[in-house]
User: What shape does this take?
Amino acid sequence: MNTQELLLNQIMQYDFSLKELELYLDTHPYCRHALDMFDKIRAVREKAVREYNENYSPITALENNSTEHWNWIDEPFPWEV
Amino acid sequence: MWQYEKKLQYPVKIKNPNPKLAKAIIDQLGGPDGELSAALRYLNQRYVMPYPEVKGLLTDIGTEELAHVEIISAILYQLTRCLSIADIKESGFDTYFVDHTTGIYPQGASDVPFTAAYFQSKGDIITDLHEDLAAEQKARSTYDNILRLADDPDVRDPIKFLRQREIVHFQRFGEALRITQDRLDSKNFYACNPAFDKNCPDMCCKNK
Assistant: This one.
């Protein structure tokens, strides 16, 4: 894995943890422990996404950060890697 | 609304094509217990749910199922890349090929196109949650069958991830059913349907 793939992989792991906590919190909305975990992982996720956007490419179209070209369509697409 | 994130929920990197295996795995795209029917089931059922925990859960699991549709489609795409005509003839992929070339089309393993008849949206929270619990187990069994057919570790790895998700969703739906029953009449859960009957305690249009 190159450094871009490693960082994206890290973001995918954070997102999985957040998704799992999201479903858990839907049925345990007052669980302080899960709320704290969600908060902590969201913070490191945001930092990693910022780093990914600055160095590589957008993950959502809103994160397109080039004034030269529309880098949202830069390859690879997720099913091609 | 939804916004696309340009990544898979779980990585798919398959080195060797295998069109025969793709014909089995396609069941989890457009088959009776597949991810597409799961996504549509939950995202349609959620509107008339009386409790916020269940509205949230159906929205969030339904959304995750859309990500699973994408994982299955990525597996199918990678299993059918760069095929020769000989590969297609020998593997039995020729019947699919003549209809779709190697395009991704939602159908079951036995060639039946996807249909909304695979799921129900009954407008009754107890009925719908029981359907959802059963759907997660049926999908888990289908993944177990795929794991009996697949030797390639590149394929088994994302399939095992998806199988685990069925078990987690089953757990969460069980909790949603408990939350629901705690709020209904404890002497008779079926006394009224909070999505419709005006005499029900949680009826949304009681004061309208």
Q: What stands out?
A: Chain B has a mean pLDDT of 96. The CA atoms of residues 141 and 163 of chain B lie 8 Å apart.
